[in-house]
């Protein structure tokens, strides 16, 4: 019987990867959610030469120029790849996917205009926004991000059903006794409520969450359902 001393902290990738190839585990079946630790939105950024200043203008431009826009990702099957495909499916636009080997490796090509658009973490794109090397259009979360409060959400631009965040959370093995899960959750939430930790996370572009086990379970299932649909419809496979 699990005793609460063996835990795992993992990210959205643990939901996505098993959907793309045969895995020995299922995050929903084999683990007990304890608490979501953080959430971090992406920022939709474009090369400044692209004649768009909002997500609405981006959608209009893409529809007027089908297949002429491209977007960079951290690689085939990455969360940024799926984010681009979700944006395409949600808005009905056509963009060409350009995979790179890891997050941030596409910046030189984004600066030069070789690629037009990317989904970057706040901490990675913020210096380039300040230097006017890229133009931010929106954050991908449901609410505005504290580090870039001037950047609207995609939802504010009228894009419904599009919300993506990178997240981390703690899980225990399935069948861990409920009192142990609840005690672990209480301790984790207490730590996440410390102002010093919240400030440190915020400085890195992340927001402390500290959800209940029930809330985290709902979130994980919703994430799996959302990405399973995108993967099935697009046939995405990981490298």
Order of helices and strands: EHHEHEHEHEHEEHHEH
Give the oligomeric state. Answer: single chain
Number of domains: 2
Query: Could you tell me the strand content as a percent range?
Result: 15-25%
Number of helices: 9
Please provide the count of β strands: 8
Shape: globular
CATH topology of the largest domain: D-Maltodextrin-Binding Protein, domain 2
Mean pLDDT, all residues: 95
Structural class: alpha+beta
CATH-wise, what's the superfamily of the largest domain? Periplasmic binding protein-like II
Radius of gyration (CA) equals: 19 Å
Give the biggest beta sheet: 8 strands, mixed
State the distance separating the first and last CA atoms: 36 Å
Q: Report the CATH C-level class of the largest domain.
A: Alpha Beta
Helical proportion, percent range: 40-55%
Enumerate the spans where pLDDT stays under 50 for 5 or more consecutive residues: none
CATH architecture level-2 label of the largest domain? 3-Layer(aba) Sandwich
């Amino acid at each position: 019987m699990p005793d609460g001393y063996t835990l795992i902290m993992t990210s959205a990738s643990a939901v996505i990867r098993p959907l793309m190839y045969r895995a020995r585990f299922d995050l929903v079946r084999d683990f007990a959610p304890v608490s979501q630790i953080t959430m971090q939105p992406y920022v939709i950024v474009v090369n400044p030469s692209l004649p768009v200043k909002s997500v609405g203008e981006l959608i209009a431009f893409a529809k007027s120029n089908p297949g002429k826009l491209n977007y960079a990702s951290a690689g085939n099957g990455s969360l940024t790849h799926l984010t681009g495909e979700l944006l395409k499916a949600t808005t009905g636009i056509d963009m060409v996917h350009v995979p790179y080997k890891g997050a941030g490796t596409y910046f030189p090509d984004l600066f030069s205009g070789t690629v037009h658009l990317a989904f970057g973490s706040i901490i990675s794109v913020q210096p380039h926004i300040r230097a006017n090397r890229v133009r931010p259009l929106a954050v991908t979360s449901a609410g505005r991000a504290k580090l870039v409060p001037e950047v609207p959400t995609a939802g504010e631009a009228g894009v419904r059903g599009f919300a993506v965040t990178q997240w981390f959370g703690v899980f225990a093995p399935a069948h861990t006794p409920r009192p142990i899960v609840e005690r672990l959750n209480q301790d984790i939430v207490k730590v996440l409520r410390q102002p010093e930790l919240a400030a440190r996370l915020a400085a890195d572009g992340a927001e402390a969450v500290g959800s209940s086990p029930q809330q985290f379970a709902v979130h994980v299932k919703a994430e799996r359902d959302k990405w399973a649909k995108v993967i099935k419809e697009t046939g995405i496979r990981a490298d």
